[in-house]
Amino acid sequence: MKIDLHRYVYLFPLLFGLICLTAAFAGLLGSVEREAMATQQTVNSPGSLIFKSEDRGESWTAVGSLPDVLTLTPDPAVVGTLYAGSSFGLYKSVNGGATWTLSANGLPREQVNTIVVDPSKANVVYVGTTSVFSNTGAVYKSVDGAASWGPGKLYTGALSVNALSLSPSNSNTIFAATYRGMFKSVDGGENWVEINNGLINTGIISRVPFTIPTVAIDPSNPNLIYAPTLPIISGPPVVCRSADGGNSWDVINNEFGVFYSLVIDPSNTSNLYGGLNGLRSGFGYDSGIFKSTDRGRSWQRVLPDPSSGVSGLDSSLAKLAIDPVTPSTIYAGVNNSLFLSGGEIIKQPRLKRGFYKSVDSGVSWSQKTKGLPDAGITALAVDPQNPSRIYAASAALSASVSAASFKGDGLARESIVAMFGSGFTNSTEGATSTPLPYSLAGVSIKVSRQNAPLFYASPFQVNYQIPVGSIPGVNTVMVSRGGEVISFDTVLITDVAPGLFTADASGGGVVAGVALRARPDGSQIYEPIVNFDQAQNRFVTIPIDLGPESDQVFLSLFGTGIRFRFSESTVKVTIGGMEVPVTFAGPQGTLAALDQINVRLLRTLAGKGEVDLVVTVDGNVANTTRINIK
C-alpha cells in the first residue's frame, strides 16, 4: 500500500521544509571540530576551523570555527584577543579563538580582507572591506576594540581594500592597497589621498592604477614601501617600491608582481619573502614562495624546490608570516585551487595544501601536519606577544551529506543531498516548481559533468539531488556561482544509502511520517504521528492508537537513498526491537527524489510507548529515529 500525498496535503510543507531547511549545521560543525583534534586526516568543514599552535607550528589544536576566514590578526597588547575577517564580516575572540562574537555595530556584513590593530593606541582597530553588493571598498575604524565602528572611508574608486599597513614610526599614517591603486591617510583614517605616481598601468589603456594585492613597509625605514601589482587592463605584473613614503614609485622588478603576501625580515630588511600566484612576465601562470635578498630587485623560488621543475601551471596560494624574534623562521599557509575541466582535475598542484615551516631563512621547508586537517590554510598570524603561538584558519570546504540522515560516508543515486559550507550565495532561494531548477540564487552544481537539480540555496547550504544516471563510485562535485567554480568536493555514490527524515530535521528524534487506519468498511483515515509542542519548543511524538482488532494500521516513513534496493524483501524495519512487515519501499512519486517505506503495525506493539525505529536496506542501517505506540 502506497500513501497518496495528494490526499494528505499537510505533508507537502512539512516534507519540503525537511528537504530544504535543515537544522543540523551546528551539530555537523561540532563533530568536525572534534575530528580535527586528531592527527592529519581529511576533514570536510562547513566553514573555516581556527587552529592554534603553542610550539611554533610543530603541533596544532582546533580551538574554534567561523564561516570562510580570510585573515587573522592578534591584538598586540591584549593577551588572547584575536580578530578574524571573513566573507561575512568581522569577528572578535577574547579567549584565543575558542568563542567568537560578530562585530556589526556600524560595520556592514561585508567581506573583510585585512585587519590592523594600532600597537600604540589601545582598542584602535582598522579593517578594509569589499562589498559584493555595491562593488565598493572601504576602511572602517573602531576606537573601542570593535564594539562599534565609525563610518566607512575611501569609497571613491577603491572597489576593494585588499590590505592595510600602519607606518612603524607614526600609527596615524596608514597605507591602503586597493583594487584601484594605493591610498594614504595621515590622520588615522579620517581622510585619504591617492598616491599612484608610478603606480599607473602603462599598457594599451593608460592612466588606470594598478591593482595592489598587498603592501609592506620596511620596519627600519618607514619611507621604504613595497607594492606588488596586478595590471587591470594590460601590461606586465611588476613590483614597485617607494623611497619617499609613497609620494612616488619606481618599478624594481618587471618579471614578478602578483604577490598576495609579502613579509620583510626585521633583522635584515634586504630580505623579502613573497607568496606568488598569477601571471609572470615571459613565463605564464606561476605560483609558489619566492625570496629576494636585494630589496625586491630579483627573486628566487624557494618553495616548491626549484629542482622539482617549474611548470607553466600551478595553483598554490600562500599566506606568509615571519617569527619576529627568530626571523630565520618563516611560516607559509598554502591553499590550493584546482584546475578543472568538465568536472575533472586536469592539473594537480605541485605543492600540497597545508602549513609549511622553514627555520633556515627559506632554504629548506617541511610540512607540519600534527593536529591539522588535510585542508588549505587561508589565514596565518604569529602572536606578537608570544611568538611561539601561531594561529591558522583552514580553507572553507564543502561537506555533502544525506539531507535526511546527515551521514556522508556514501550518497545514493538520485538521493537528496545537503551540502554545507560558506559563501555559496548572497541570498536565499528555494525551488517552487517541478521539474527542479539547475540554478538557484545564482548557484549551480555539477556531479561529474551532470547538472544537479536543486531544492534550495543559501549562503551556508545548498540542497541538491544526485543526478539521474550518476554512476556509483567516486564522483566530483563542483559548485559554481556566476559561471565560476567556488567549491570542489568528491563524494562516494552508491546504490543504496538509506536515510529517514525527522520532524526537527536533525537526523534523529521523531520520524517524519503518517499513520493510515484502514477499517473493515473500506474507509481510510490518515493520522499524524508528530506534533510541535510550543511549551517545550520541540517536536514530540503523538501515540499511535492501534484501535480495535478489526482495524489495520499502516505507517508511512519518508526518506531518501532507498529506491535502488535489491528487493522489498531486503528492506527490514524494527520498532522497539520487533520486526514489522514491509508492504512497500521505493520512490514516493510526488516529490522529487523522495522515497517512502510503508509498514504494517502489528497488534503486539500495543503499549510499547516511545521506542526506536530502525530501518535496514540491503544491509545498510539508516539513522535511528523515534515513534510512539499507544
Write structural notes for this entry.
This protein is mostly beta strands and 630 residues long. The chain has a domain at 498-629: Immunoglobulin-like, CATH 2.60.40. It is 3% helix and 42% strand. Strands 40, 41, 42, 45, 48 and 49 form a six-stranded antiparallel β-sheet that branches. It has a five-stranded antiparallel β-sheet with strand order 30-32-37-36-33, with no helix packed on it. A hairpin with a 3-residue loop joins strand 36 and strand 37. Mean pLDDT is 83; it is low at 1-13, 21-46, 307-313 and 338-347.
Based on Cα principal axes, name the global outline.
elongated
Beta content comes to: 35-45%
Largest sheet composition: 6 strands, antiparallel
CATH topological fold name of the domain at 498-629: Immunoglobulin-like
What's the number of extended β-strand segments? 52
Low-confidence stretches: 1-13, 21-46, 307-313, 338-347
Mean pLDDT: 83
First CA to last CA: what distance? 23 Å
Please write the CATH class name of the domain at 498-629.
Mainly Beta
The helix-and-strand class reads mainly beta
Q: Helical percent range?
A: under 10%
Radius of gyration: 28 Å
CATH architectural arrangement of the domain at 498-629: Sandwich
How many helices? The count is 2
Give a quick summary of the entry.
The protein has 630 residues and is mainly beta.
Chart the SSEs and their pairings:
Layout: H1 11-20, H2 25-36, E1 48-53, E2 61-66, E3 69-74, E4 82-86, E5 89-93, E6 101-103, E7 111-117, E8 125-131, E9 136-142, E10 161-166, E11 174-178, E12 181-185, E13 193-194, E14 216-217, E15 225-228, E16 239-242, E17 250-253, E18 259-264, E19 272-280, E20 284-292, E21 300-303, E22 316-322, E23 330-336, E24 339-341, E25 344-347, E26 354-358, E27 366-368, E28 377-382, E29 390-394, E30 399-402, E31 411-412, E32 416-420, E33 429-430, E34 443-447, E35 450-451, E36 454-457, E37 461-465, E38 473-481, E39 484-494, E40 499-500, E41 513-518, E42 524-528, E43 530-533, E44 538-541, E45 552-560, E46 571-575, E47 578-580, E48 582-587, E49 595-600, E50 609-617, E51 620-621, E52 625-629
Parallel strand pairs: 31-39
Antiparallel strand pairs: 1-2, 1-29, 3-4, 4-5, 5-6, 7-8, 8-9, 10-11, 11-12, 12-13, 14-15, 15-16, 16-17, 18-19, 19-20, 20-21, 22-23, 23-26, 24-25, 26-27, 28-29, 30-32, 32-37, 33-36, 34-35, 34-38, 36-37, 38-39, 40-45, 41-42, 41-45, 43-44, 45-49, 46-47, 46-50, 48-49, 50-51, 50-52
